Amino acid sequence: MITFNTLEDQNLAELTTVFNLAFSDYMIKFQLSEQAMAIKLKSENISLAYSAGAFENGKLVGFILNGLDTIGGKQLVYNGGTGVVPDQRGQRLPQKMYEFISPLLKNAGYTHHLLEVIEGNEKAIRSYEKTGFQILRKCGCFKGIVTGEPAAGILVAPMTDPDWTILESFRDIEPTWQNSTPAVCRAMEQYILAGAYIGSELTGYAVMDPVNGRIKQFAVQPEYRRKGVGTALFRYMNQKSQTGSINFINYNETDTGAWIFFEKLGLERFISIFEMGMTYA
């Protein structure tokens, strides 16, 4: 018999095991260590007390991991992962978990929901649409080894105690939840933050998780674009990556200039995702 409850009593080891089993046959390889799961829970502000679990005779077989935050005056819920172990699929468990957890979230004032789903995963998209989600925007995911040469006269160096107001002013697009500034700041000790300088002028920055080479954020001041600043930043991060390569997930497709830049660097787009949203009245 399947029952539903929150995840606040689940330990990290069990949660990681079930997460990896649920994603064992996913469209892309996606497995986490316990350390990586702990970082995910921290950076995405996952609240296990407001996350849903499906249980068969007391054993966790499905989950929705919900991150909570208040952004722009809105209390937002971010779905940091929905999964069901293979032998329990076909029972509409994701929709039933939403039916269980949504009233708890609504009563706490959280009525705006966000999630991400891979383009082409039609089964998941239909399931979320039946729950009430709509597609908000499309983002691309890139990976590879940086091949471009930086221009002379650009110094890339670590940054400490950054002024995020200044850094965010360099951006043209708003990052998705897991790449947002609050998410980055919550786990900053895990990341590398570097700035690109021409003389004493800060012209751009990038943030990366060196363990998996994932770029969390990057931006270049508009007046310094197409002058080698971005290339210098990405080459620096590629050198610091423990994988010998870099990757960038969920970058908004409306920034077509950045997509062209990624390809010129030697990065390939390997998947696209949809950001979906739902609002309760």
TrEMBL record:
PROSITE patterns: GNAT (PS51186). Keywords: Transferase. CDD domains: NAT_SF. PANTHER family: L-AMINO ACID N-ACETYLTRANSFERASE. It holds the Pfam family Acetyltransf_7. One of its GO terms (molecular function) is acyltransferase activity, transferring groups other than amino-acyl groups. Residues 2-152, 154-281 form the N-acetyltransferase domain. This is Acetyltransferase (GNAT) family protein. It comes from the Bacteria.
